[in-house]
Design brief:
The protein contains two helices and eight strands; from the N terminus they run βαββββαβββ. The chain is an alpha+beta fold and 119 residues long. An eight-stranded mixed beta sheet has the order 2-3-4-1-5-8-7-6, with helices on one face. The two termini are 18 Å apart.
């Protein structure tokens, strides 16, 4: 396999409702004990990838489901996605205090794909 999928994210205008839904449906442990209340889905060392269930950023009406791929060079990957018909949505952005850098693009059909380095 090439670059691995290492994180998924689901957003909802009612994040608490959706956190409960997935927790009850799949038995996921969702931890919101963090400054932003971001619902971290923890695999607790079991098979599967971690993820998050949260509200979209303030002022954003759209919700989404996306996955994050770990790559060695965010900008090079964004540039390659654009060459192949994708659209850059978010340039590389360091997450404060997390030693993680994120970026995002839309594939040719408009699906958002996240990129990460350092997760």
């Amino acid at each position: 396999m090439g670059q691995p999928v290492i994180h998924f994210e689901i957003t909802s205008k009612d994040a608490g409702r959706l956190q409960g839904f997935y927790s009850n449906l799949f038995g996921w442990s969702v931890d919101t004990n963090n400054p932003g209340g971001y619902g971290m889905v923890d695999t607790k060392g079991e098979r599967g990838i971690p993820g998050g269930i949260s509200a979209p950023p303030q002022g954003v009406d759209k919700t989404w489901l996306t996955f994050y791929v770990e790559v060695p060079d965010l900008q090079a990957t964004l540039d390659r996605a654009a060459e192949l018909g994708g659209t850059i949505l978010m340039p590389p952005m360091e997450i404060p205090g997390g030693n993680v850098t994120l970026a995002a693009f839309a594939d040719p059909d408009g699906n958002m794909i996240g990129l990460t380095k350092g997760m």
